[in-house]
Here is the input.
Amino acid sequence: MSFADRVQALRLRKLKILDDHNKRIQKLQRALNSELSEIDREISQLGDASARLPCLVRITPGPELTVYHSADVPCGRVHNRQNFKVMPEIDAMDASPYAYLERCSACGWKRAAKIHGNHLIGEV
Here is the structure.
């Protein structure tokens, strides 16, 4: 085997080792991302199922209350937070003496559930 052939063989071995290593790293990264996504989904479910999810209920005079808003990801209808009282969702549902309140459909409840779930497990 000539000198040039030996150099080429070593170069190819090195490239194969690096390529194999890179493929293993990518496989591990995909597995890690998959597991973390599953945990994030479970955290969101935990936050959404919590009766302590922080909500905003309007306390100023105006139209009859029908909805409460997310305290963490409110919609555009929440202009001034001073017009709202922060309370857990379980209390927000019964905050009106006239009607059972529901979640505002414009608020970001999925993101709010994830934020609240992270608070519940002690992350920020």
